[in-house]
Amino acid sequence: MGVDLHNRTGKTFMANWWGWRRLLDNAFEYGWDPGRLASEHHYYHNDGQVVSAEDSTSIADALESYVKSMKARGTEDPEWIAYTEEFIEFCRHGSFKIW
Questions:
Q1: What is the DSSP string of the chain?
Q2: How many domains does the chain have?
Q3: pLDDT (tens digit per residue) in 45-96
Q4: What is the pTM of this model?
Q5: What is the domain range of residue 9?
Q6: What residues have CB less than 8 Å from 84, skipping those under 6 apart?
């Protein structure tokens, strides 16, 4: 179980619960501000929430900072970095739904 993300261009991204929460936590830790939402926890569920294009871009920007930091330190699993970079690319395509 986890989340399936779908955007308007037909692209999808899948994450298990552990990975999905880690992506959001890392984004939040590295500067993502969930904006109009009370917290990043709104996106922890798979109820068809819409992640706005603005939030998607902000998540990608924060995760790019995270990846840059981890690469500089050499302290993160390379597979996790690659997975995070795939998600960043997905986010760059704009708004998406969480299922």
A1: -EEEEEETTS-EEEEEHHHHHHHHHHHHHTT---TTSS-GGGGGS-S-EEEPHHHHHHHHHHHHHHHHHHHHHT-S-HHHHHHHHHHHHHHTT--EEE-
A2: 1
A3: 899 999 999 999 999 999 999 999 999 999 889 999 999 999 999 999 999 9
A4: 0.91
A5: 2-98
A6: 23, 26, 63, 66, 67
